[in-house]
Write a structure and sequence with these properties.
heterodimer, A: about 110 residues, mainly beta, 11 strands, about 0% helix, globular, B: about 110 residues, five-stranded mixed sheet
Chain lengths: ~110, ~110
């Protein structure tokens, strides 16, 4: 079945450690996105990529990094520079005609 | 991409139609209106999109005014499972980033 997969579902890390969240899609989509969602809030765009080997900062990119070496993969690294990393992280992908974005089930990151 | 305005919350009785409004007065000629919804603690789900004609699918209907400055998402027979945050987004149909606003929190009540 085609889809978009995020792993892990829950992640715990100690403060000061970098952590990488995985996002994989087999929908042959060109565009991929990373969002952060805090309790009771909407989705805020961290980074997006419209093609392999290219990506752009979203509204809240500070403290995060990404790579897009393969079309199907768009990992997000939460670095120690991110002041409040505890949040729900969502990954999405869509085709080049913006027909319909598909979202993963999310990763809930807790930093203690 | 054009900005959208939605009411923060709405209630609807189970079995009745839910009509969710969205204002997008600065929409340009090549921008589409998209609707997504997010059920608690899940990823958003695409519902429908349109340019200027009314659209209908198995989930909902989208009514866009003739001047395209506003639209309404209609869930014809709302169920308790339709309780979610509904997002109206305006963007072009090729490329560009996908930005979510605050949306409307729809509560369907028995």
């Amino acid at each position: 079945d085609g889809g978009i997969t995020q792993s892990p579902k829950y992640l715990f890390r100690k403060e000061g450690q970098n952590v990488t969240l995985s996002c994989e899609q087999n929908l042959n989509h060109d565009a991929m996105y990373w969002y952060r969602q805090d309790p009771g809030q909407g989705l805020r765009l961290i980074y997006y990529s419209q093609i392999v080997n290219d990506f752009q900062k979203g509204d809240i990119a500070e403290g995060y990094s990404v790579s897009r070496e393969k079309k199907e993969s768009f990992p997000l690294t939460v670095t120690s520079a991110q002041k409040n990393p505890t949040a729900f992280y969502l990954c999405a992908s869509e085709d080049r005609w913006n027909t319909e974005a598909f979202f993963g089930q999310g990763t809930r990151l807790t930093v203690v | 991409d054009a900005k959208t305005t939605q009411p923060p919350s709405m209630d609807c009785a189970e079995g009745r139609a839910a009509n969710l409004p969205c204002n997008h007065s600065t929409i340009s000629g090549n921008e589409y209106v998209y609707w997504y919804r997010q059920i608690h603690s899940q990823g958003p789900q695409y519902i429908i999109h349109g340019l200027k004609n009314n659209e209908t699918n198995e989930m909902a209907s989208l009514i866009i005014t003739e001047d395209r400055k506003s639209s309404t998402l209609i869930l014809p027979h709302a169920t308790l499972r339709d309780t979610a945050v509904y997002y109206c987004i305006v963007r072009g149909n090729q490329g560009g980033k996908l930005i979510f606003g605050q949306g409307t929190e729809l509560s369907v009540k028995p």
